[in-house]
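Example S7 (structure tokens).
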């Protein structure tokens, strides 16, 4: 019966998931119940129930940005912040170490990683990218299954008044493959609470074994579902509340390890609960969303939201309502917590969310420009009381959303135009060219996500050349990895013949001054100019000069001028694209530019023919360029800070940077100490914190000759030369009397720099090694990456602190001591490889070395003690017999440095008898002669007792 019911319910649930309807559109409040509670009242009732009736401590929601946990993109469940408790690594000095029973309402984002609901959002009526999770926890066995189930049942049926017959529960049916038994205990608890047997179902690990990510704490769970149909017929179930019994940890190798203690971890989606209590089948028909839906209707002047899904939702208007309402909540919450739309990781996900919202609002709902930003105050109004950080940052949220919306709209318009133009050239059965799709997404300027391009094509009924696209993606990956470890490979070059020919023809060097034409907008963003130029010469891959190139050809392009920065002075080349003037719909991707004898050669793949004399317009990839500017200014600050810390004679020996990281080689007598590394970071942070102006100016080389403190590398500089000075105008910096170059960073440099230092954000040195005698290579990251490195460092320091505390408590148990020793090993590996501050790595490595030694000594002592005890026992038991056959387990005694070895023992005894001995740590033999055998045996016994 149970099995067939389970199968039926599983089918139902699957069907339910496929069909996004929550059973219909009508609102049916429970007739005899009090009027539907507001979301605020529902949230409050949850918290006060656990605080007042069951003695839980209330804790605030953690930020949606995971702190020091690189395994997550966003916080996806209430339990995330308690992970150190589950893993037993919580710092015993922290407040969290004292948590026994707590409850909260946690902001969760499920838009990436293991829990990703982005695709469902808009299509169904129960999934959001941002939602609130109500949860209660019992740590270290404070209470377990029975109390957890009882409290949940009491809250739902008595406090919220949900009829019992509308609730169904599921429990873990076991997983023979993983050796996990069914959780019959939970089943019996539900039956004892009066849940009707037909409403108790079991499922496998897919449904009822909860995991936070690919690694981390996990365990069997029991879930409470609500039947939306409620007519006694086939149930339509939606999951309301998940009660997880955390007992294991999923290790990196995929195995399950038991945790030292057991814990209760529960989570219930507030939006779904409110929908149930407000008698509706959709989370969107609640007071959490209706103010947003109203604002959308008013702002766009569209027909009202009707709650339709799937095919019934003609023109996808209702889906658009839902996507926009959902996404603006996610954007607001994330930005308030410091995750802003950006280029990689969680920021990139957020950028996609923003762009998805813009598309639906403008294309389906015909929203006016700036519309998304206008919804932010509505979000703040509905959620600001529960999460005050939204109020605090509301102006910043509006600004960021509006800026990004405007940028995307411009790209979208251009992208649409390019697609239309391309389609006109295609035959009816042609695939859409991969190069065009790729070029739409390649550049930070257009930056249309590929999936969006595909969607736009799908709407036009055209198919994309996916195989071609996969090839391009692979090439891009290879190119990136080359950029990350700078170019051994030289790319297209002008050979001596080509150079000679250009000089003979009197072609002037490329004017690349437009690379410096960018400015700072009042809002803080950078504005980059475009550049129009003429094609002077084309080259094939083997360097032959040609007058034209054909479709699909990789070629070198020489122009009269350019705004591309060609790789030099340690700064990576720009990338971007160019278009032919008059034919803006064909993008020529330019992955790099190189300088040869004053000429700048652009590498390009021509999607169309191109010939000498053509006029082109150049666009650099702005995100990439900005990344280089950030790292280059950071490199100057680092150079300056090193001199401040190590002395004025400190010499730079080389550097290289790209948007991912910077590398800096410095002449040193000895490796930097952790204190010096910290001091260097501190000096850079100070300069960043002051957000100083960065001055750049070209001056006659002669003016730079005798300026004390001015930095230049041992290389040939052009005349005039560019001077980059932080905080002091160039003229003043070069004034011999000012001594300014001794007090701030002043360098000769042709790189492109930030106009103010603040945008560096932060700098962390994450690696340091000796390149050769006297040269130290430093690796550093900036901005968001630096923040993350600090958080990872802090998290690891806490883990090491907690491990030290556990060790100092001592243990009488060998297994426990061995586990601790293994933990030290695991921590050592983590510290060795993490991207974290180098000074902290060194400190933690030193601490861990001591701890590891102490842990090993502790094990040896315990084992030696045990072995001695066992030996005594054996001797006692067998004192009469001539022979002992038994085992003594001494794992660590056979390790590398046992104090008491068989060989040493034999040697001690035999040399006493004038003989010799040989053997290993565990078996030995020897010879000797003596008249007094008793004395020899006494020696042997005395030696052994002394060692044990
Ligand atoms: P579902 O199967 O419905 O996606 P889940 O198994 O992913 O849910 P859990 O990870 O157990 O959900 O999360 C606990 C609770 O959080 C769920 O019972 C549900 O009430 C709520 N919840 C989960 N995902 C979402 C979401 N994307 N939007 C709104 N609420 C959610
Ligand atoms: Mg889910």
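Recovered sequence:
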């Amino acid at each position: 019966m149970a099995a067939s019911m389970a199968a039926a319910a599983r089918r139902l649930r699957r069907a339910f998931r496929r069909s996004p309807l929550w059973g219909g559109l009508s609102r049916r409040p429970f007739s005899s119940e009090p009027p539907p509670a507001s979301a605020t009242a529902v949230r409050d009732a949850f918290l006060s129930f656990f605080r007042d009736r069951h003695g839980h401590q209330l804790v605030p929601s953690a930020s949606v940005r995971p702190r020091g946990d690189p395994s997550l993109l966003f916080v996806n469940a209430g339990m995330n912040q308690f992970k150190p408790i589950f893993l037993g690594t919580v710092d015993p000095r922290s407040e969290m170490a004292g948590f026994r029973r707590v409850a909260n309402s946690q902001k969760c984002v499920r838009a990436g990683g293991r829990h990703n609901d982005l695709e469902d959002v808009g299509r169904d009526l129960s999934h959001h990218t941002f939602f609130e999770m109500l949860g209660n926890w019992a740590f270290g066995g404070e209470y377990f299954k029975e109390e957890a189930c009882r409290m949940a049942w009491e809250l739902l049926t008595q406090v919220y008044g949900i009829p019992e017959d509308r609730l169904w529960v599921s429990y873990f049916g076991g997983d023979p493959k993983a050796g996990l038994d069914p959780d019959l205990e939970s089943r019996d608890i539900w039956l004892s609470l009066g849940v009707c047997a037909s409403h108790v179902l079991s499922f496998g690990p897919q449904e009822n074994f909860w995991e936070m990510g690919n690694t981390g704490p996990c365990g069997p769970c029991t879930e409470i579902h609500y039947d939306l149909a409620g007519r006694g017929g086939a149930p339509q179930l939606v999951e309301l509340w998940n009660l997880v019994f955390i007992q294991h940890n999923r290790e990196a190798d995929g195995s399950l390890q038991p945790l030292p203690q057991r814990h209760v971890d529960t989570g219930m989606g507030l939006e779904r609960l409110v929908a149930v209590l407000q008698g509706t089948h959709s989370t969107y028909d609640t007071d959490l969303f209706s103010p947003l839906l109203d604002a959308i209707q008013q702002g766009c002047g569209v027909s009202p939201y009707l709650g339709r899904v799937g095919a019934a939702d003609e023109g996808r208007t209702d889906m658009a309502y839902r996507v926009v309402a959902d996404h603006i909540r996610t954007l607001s919450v994330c930005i308030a917590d410091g995750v802003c739309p950006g280029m990689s990781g969680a920021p990139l996900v957020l950028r996609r969310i923003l762009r998805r919202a813009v598309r639906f609002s403008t294309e389906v709902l015909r929203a006016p420009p700036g519309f998304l930003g206008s919804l932010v105050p509505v979000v703040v109004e509905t959620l600001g009381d529960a999460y005050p950080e939204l109020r605090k940052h509301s102006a910043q949220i509006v600004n960021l959303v509006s800026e990004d919306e405007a940028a995307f709209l411009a790209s979208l318009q251009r992208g649409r135009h390019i697609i239309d133009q391309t389609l006109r050239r295609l035959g009816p059965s042609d695939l859409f060219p991969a190069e065009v799709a790729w070029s739409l997404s390649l550049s930070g300027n257009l930056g249309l996500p590929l999936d969006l391009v595909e969607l736009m094509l799908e709407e036009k009924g055209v198919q994309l050349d996916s195989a071609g696209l996969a090839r391009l993606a692979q090439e891009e990956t290879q190119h990136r990895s080359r950029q990350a470890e700078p170019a051994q490979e030289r790319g297209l070059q002008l050979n001596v013949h080509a150079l000679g020919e250009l000089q003979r023809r009197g072609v002037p060097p490329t004017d690349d001054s437009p690379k410096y034409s960018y400015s700072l907008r009042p809002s803080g963003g950078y504005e980059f100019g475009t550049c129009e130029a003429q094609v002077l010469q084309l080259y094939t891959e083997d360097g032959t000069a040609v007058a034209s190139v054909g479709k699909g050809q990789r070629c070198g392009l020489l122009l009269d001028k350019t705004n591309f920065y060609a790789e030099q002075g340690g700064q990576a080349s720009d990338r971007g694209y160019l278009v032919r003037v008059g034919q803006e719909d064909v993008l020529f991707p330019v992955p790099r530019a190189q300088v040869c004898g004053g000429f700048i050669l652009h590498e390009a793949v021509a999607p169309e023919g191109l010939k000498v004399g053509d006029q082109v317009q150049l666009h650099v990839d702005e995100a990439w360029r900005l990344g280089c500017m950030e790292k280059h200014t950071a490199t100057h600050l680092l150079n300056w800070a090193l001199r401040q810390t190590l002395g004025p004679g400190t010499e730079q020996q080389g550097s290289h940077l790209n948007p991912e990281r910077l590398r800096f080689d410095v002449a040193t007598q000895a490796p930097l100490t952790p204190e010096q590394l910290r001091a260097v970071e501190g000096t850079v942070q100070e300069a960043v914190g002051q957000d100083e102006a960065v001055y750049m100016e070209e001056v006659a080389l002669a003016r730079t000759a005798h300026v004390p403190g001015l930095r230049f590398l041992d290389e040939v500089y052009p005349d005039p030369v560019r001077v980059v000075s932080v905080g002091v105008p160039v003229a003043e910096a070069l004034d011999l009397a000012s001594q300014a170059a001794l007090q701030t960073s002043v360098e000769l440099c042709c790189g492109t720099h930030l106009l103010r230092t603040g945008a560096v954000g932060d700098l962390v040195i994450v690696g340091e090694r000796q390149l050769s005698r006297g040269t130290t290579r430093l690796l550093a990251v900036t901005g968001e990456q630096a923040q993350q490195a600090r958080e990872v460092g802090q998290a690891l320091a806490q883990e090491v602190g907690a491990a030290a505390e556990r060790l100092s408590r001592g243990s009488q148990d060998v297994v426990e001591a061995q586990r601790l020793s293994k933990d030290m090993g695991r921590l050592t590996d983590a510290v060795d490889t993490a991207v974290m501050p180098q000074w902290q790595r060194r400190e933690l490595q030193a601490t861990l070395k001591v701890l590891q030694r102490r842990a090993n000594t502790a094990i040896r002592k315990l084992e030696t003690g045990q072995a001695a005890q066992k030996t005594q026992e054996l001797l006692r038991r067998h004192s009469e017999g001539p022979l002992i056959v038994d085992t003594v387990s001494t794992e660590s005694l056979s390790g590398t440095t046992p104090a008491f070895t068989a060989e040493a023992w034999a040697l001690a005894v035999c040399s006493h008898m004038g003989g010799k001995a040989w053997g290993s740590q565990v078996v030995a033999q020897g010879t000797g002669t003596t008249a007094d055998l008793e004395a020899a045996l006494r020696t042997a016994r005395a030696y052994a007792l002394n060692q044990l």
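Notes on this example. Residues 60 and 104 are 6 Å apart (CA to CA).
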